[in-house]
Write a structure and sequence with these properties.
The protein has helices spanning 2-12, 44-51, 57-60, 151-187; strands at residues 19-28, 31-40, 64-73, 76-87, 90-103, 107-115, 117-129, 132-143. 32% of the residues lie in helices and 48% in strands.
Amino acid sequence: KLRIYLLLLMLFALPAQATDMQINFDRDGDIIKIDGHLILPYPAKLIFEVLTDYEHMHEYVPDMTSSRIMNKEESKIRVEQKGKSGIGPFKFKFEVVRDVDLTPLTEIKSTLVSGNFKSMRTSTKITPEGDNTKLDYVADMEPGFWVPPLLGPAIMKRQVRRQFEAFTDELKKRKHVVNESKKDNINQ
């Protein structure tokens, strides 16, 4: 029991790279509710581009092994994503097909079509705030696999935090590329 307690403490003590990152996690029976908020020093356009880059997402999101667009019609996309996550002996694979509705630069909503979750709905709102941009992420999901009562919530919270951090790292890279490109254009 002490080992599990120490592991939980380590998971929740992971540093946040994004400014003002808050992740609230709740369980209502089998439904897992995640409510995340963070402020990022990047423009909404860049954030929207990174959050909707489904063809390359598996390259920078931890534990995601594949991500591809199956179908795209204007602001509606069908996405298939696969991966695995966990700690020690508590590992699980995830496979989802989601319908994603895009409101350019302001909101991304998704609904589960199929996969190893019984249900999943997510919403990400993108709101400019001065020189920063606020992200509000809400997810309600019901896994179709067993989630350990004590360790499961910690694993899922850790996963969401790691994904936010991966998006932040990708934002930094892309912002750097844009800045270098601007410098090169000025120097020519």
